[in-house]
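quick one, two chains, predict together pls
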Amino acid sequence: MTSKENKDKIVDPEYGLDSRYRSKKEQKSEATALMEARLKRMKNLSRDQIIRAKLMQLKLRMEEFIKQPVSDSHNYFSDFLKTYVDIIYSKRSKFAHDIDVTPVRLSQVINNHREPKDEFIMRLMIHSEKVYKNICEFQNSTWIQVYFHEKICDTMASQKHWRPMVEKHVKLSESLH
Amino acid sequence: MNIIETSKRVKHEVEILPVEDYENLGKDRYFFDWGMEHQYEVYTLQIIGSTDILGLLSIEKITSEWRVHIRLLTVARENKGKNKRYGRIAGNLIAHAAKIAVREFGELACVSLRPKSKVARHYIDKYNMRSTGLTLNIEVPEILDLITNYDKQGK
């Protein structure tokens, strides 16, 4: 390192932080010591701390999904919903009770046997506001965005199935120049 | 997420994006030659609506250890020291690494650094990191507070 670079580093520890391990050997020995220390601390995590981490993880996954370009067809909404309920509740029926739907209806949505109604998504939205209030920032539009982003993905990914039938019903009677 | 323009105490909303073009990411302004990091995940921080890169971060995901290791981190040259133009650039980039770790590994998430000893204290004091050997790290629950703090300051 040149003396100029050295001087820069002393001026500000956030300018030019080189945090790479110096060798594979150093990385391995550091990783072993770090993992041992972490495992000890993990044992002392409280249930609340674990739930908080899992809810933050779910939120970040949903935000990541919304940002992704339209891609494959997958049941993201129901997967995220299932994760959300199972993080917070010991029994899914308790969540169904809390948002005033029947356990059967909740099960149908989670297992992709029925689409969630608008009312269902709105209740879920309000429930999440209450849950995330003391945990982290949570945009209340997140569930709706996940639902519609999945719809777009589904529709675009399955074009070869629906397009032949749908095209029969579409014509352009006005000529455009 | 936001940064503060130090002279006016004005907040600017920022975004952190993967690097698409390594040209103009040279040592003169960003301390390292960032092209050498192309096989890792490299992120830039910029004010929303601007293409000017104010800070850079490269990370390595170590999935087997539920860990994201920060390899290189820098603010742009004009944002270092007492006369920096913008503050909170590095904090936002570290919070971004924390988000990646929590998104991937949940309650097992960890972000680590291996700084030289003379700057380690800064990261311990400012970001609530702990040290194990030469490595500094942040994990649950402190990592969640770091994310929340930088997200809240964005309001």
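The interface with chain B takes residues 5, 8-21, 26, 29-31, 33-35, 37-38, 41-42, 45, 49-50, 52-54, 56-57, 60-61, 64, 135-137 of chain A (CB under 8 Å).
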